[in-house]
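Predicting structure from sequence has reshaped protein science. With that in mind, we have picked out one protein's residues alongside their backbone shape tokens:
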Amino acid sequence: MPELPEVETVRRGLLPAMEGALVRRLEQRRPDLRFPLPERFASRIEGRRITSLQRRAKYLLIGFDDGSVLISHLGMSGSYYVDRGDPKERPGRFHHDRSKDERHDHVVFHLEGPLGSARVVYNDPRRFGFMLLTGDGELDGHPLIRDLGVEPTGNALNAEYLAGRFAGKKAPLKAALLDQRIIAGLGNIYVCEALWLAGLSPRRAAGSLVARSGAPVARLEHLTRAVRTVIAAAIDAGGSSLRDHRQADGTLGYFQHTFNTYDREKEACRRDGCDGMIRRVVQSGRSTFYCPACQR
């Protein structure tokens, strides 16, 4: 499933075509994706101007001039592309390949914007993605949004905040970091990478990083910086494609070439002075990659 840096890269790639554009026509080529598409989808969107294109966790949020917001999730295989002619722009960097088969183009926005006419197309072979439309002023209270934790890209993520959420927790660090009620949008790849960077075992109890006074210990400070560093680096690199996907300007993202743990089972640890090997274990049904020699 695409993680936060991939979704942020998609948002940035779509921004020039979508923000400020008028939706002249909306093609809905099937009634549903993971869930039914919004009722009267086309009639509610056509003639509206897109006022914003934002991201919350792993959701794209498309705002319109009537105050409504389209919540879009890419699911396992979803992607957007911008069609102004050839070549098509396919923003986003994904760990798994994205489809280019136009038979899976399910929703098409026909736009007239500051840069001219464009089609923005949502493609999803497995149809695990979804689009939901909220009314004016309803976004913050939406069930998908209201309980989300802080973003890992903003100043709200700090050691004091995590200490308050980790205090007394016996759950392993990996599970605590993946809890979307604590940090929104942090996924499996980048949790593994951040824990390696901080030198912390994914099996360590989250509460062990909080002093009896409730203050964060030094290692929680290191972990907070590691999360922010890894996410920022991945966004700058365009995400984690291992294939041939390009940003809107045609350049490739190469964060995957800097993976220190993820998908490197039985390979040598890259930390200076460590002679350990990367191990894979399963936690809560998810693969965890870490170095047992230097991550404590």
Remarks:
- Helices lie at 4-18, 41-45, 159-166, 173-178, 188-198, 218-237.
- The beta strands are 22-28, 50-56, 59-64, 69-73, 79-83, 105-113, 116-123, 130-134, 279-283, 286-290.
- The first strand starts at residue 22 and ends at 28.
- The chain has a mean pLDDT of 90.
